[in-house]
Amino acid sequence: MSSSDSVEKFHTLLRTSVHDGTLVKLTLGKHRGTDATLQNLFVRPVTLKAGPHLSFTWRHATRDIVKNHPPADALVTLESLIGRDFLDAHLFTPVQTAQLESRSDGTARLHVKLAASAPSPAVEHHDRAKEHLVPADAPWLRALGVTNDRGQPREGMAAKFRQIQKFTELLAHLLVEATLLPPDTDTGSPFTPPDFRPLRISDMGCGKGYLTFALAAHLRARAEVTGIEFRPELVELCNRHARDNGLANLHFAAGDIASTPLDRADVLVALHACDTATDDALAKGLAAGARLLVVSPCCQKELRPQLTAPAILADALRHGIFQERQAEFVTDALRAMLLEWAGYRTKVFEFISTEHTAKNLMLAAIKTTPSPSGTRDVNSPLAGRIRAFAAFYGIRHQALAAHLGFVLA
Ligand SMILES: C[S@@+](CC[C@H](N)C(=O)[O-])C[C@H]1O[C@@H](n2cnc3c(N)ncnc32)[C@H](O)[C@@H]1O
After folding, report:
1. Could you tell me the CA-to-CA distances from 193 to 188, 316, 323, 378 in Å, in that order?
2. Quick check: is 137 in a domain?
3. Buried-most residue among 130, 223, 279, 392 (CB within 10 A)?
4. Residue 193, preceding bond cis, omega within 30 degrees?
């Protein structure tokens, strides 16, 4: 099929799907127009009081702009954009998916695929909530190697994809619970309250930045997100992807958690920062006055040489795996208690099924004022219970306790 036939056929499929009500969605990508901040255009049918319309979501680097158009006007606009301002167009109907790939030299190819399991026609009312907080076709997911060109997880990345979705959902809830965002915040909306200032979020030990990108992309202008990472090559890579994907609210810096200054932060995140790097990150967040601390500890080695459990546990602890699990439990329980002592309400839970990763424990702490347990009173009943717990397991030193000046023994 020639390029012009491909384009004409795509336009016909689009017009037909709009007229017969089978359009599920149209996604335009690879923007080449004059506005450098524009990334995508998402189109879906909506029913307004004025009748059926097409809703356009113009995705810019830091905001979305939504406009609804009568179908005839919308089709004229779309036909002028496809292949010119946007080189990639995906049309979804319940029975098929059509992709028009255009090149800058004016040539184009059409791929049409029958839908294996078709999404139902999505005539949505325009106030319907988003289904996924991280859209599978987000360009940064593709840039980081999580998804392919069709917006599906690449081989071996399905668990990471689910983890990213789950983590973003959890953070969105925790931000509301910590009163850092109002409950009905539409993070895609370009409108912000008059007294609004972006949240400062620091992700320490961010690695390749999957979850850092997810936060920045979800919160957009509502947050300035910084990733801190040891390895300079990852920092360089992440900064490049943030720039290329127009995420102006996302930056990465090379550094060691313990020695990287953090003056002010609203949210401290440290996911899978090994061993005492989690304690260093928590201490940074506490000192910076963060209202929300979210960590997912791993490699809890620090306490293992000190652990002298009571004699009655000796037979059980002959087994290495139980020693390991006990060290994890004692370390994270102590962290949670110390955070309570420091004036935070804490909760510990599994944030994704162990089927996806064994490193799935999450500890979230929200600052409470005043603290129910009497903040940082070394003579409080809680302080006594912490010392008794440490003594039971023979623990004399623990990194977070040291950061807080809490003497365990
Ligand atoms: C297991 S990865 C986790 C990455 C990411 N947070 C996630 O959950 O996908 C841990 C990362 O933390 C970094 N890291 C560990 N200790 C660190 C420290 N003290 N300072 C800065 N980065 C650290 C490592 O280089 C590594 O990239």
Report:
1. 14, 57, 51, 41
2. no
3. 279
4. no
Tell me which residue has tokens 């903040």.
375
Closest among 365, 368, 168 to 267, alpha carbons compared: 365
- What pTM value is reported for the model? 0.69
Residue 178 · residue 292 · CB < 8 Å: yes
Asked if pLDDT for residue 286 goes beyond 50, the answer is yes
Backbone angles phi and psi of 152, in degrees to 5: -115, 150
Q: Identify whether residues 105 and 213 lie together within a single domain.
A: no
Over residues 142-153, the pLDDT tens digits come to 999 999 988 889
Q: How far is the CA of 268 from the centre of ligand 1 (A)?
A: 14
Q: Which of 164, 211, 229, 352 has the most ligand 1 atoms within 8 A of CB, as the residue to mutate?
A: 229
With beta carbons less than 8 A apart as the criterion, state whether 89 and 27 touch: yes
CA of 200 from ligand 1 middle (Å) equals 19
Distance of CA 383 to the CA centre of its chain: 35
Domain that holds residue 47: 3-128
95: CA distance to ligand 1 center in Å? 44
3-state SS of the chain: helix, strand, coil percent to 5?
35, 25, 40
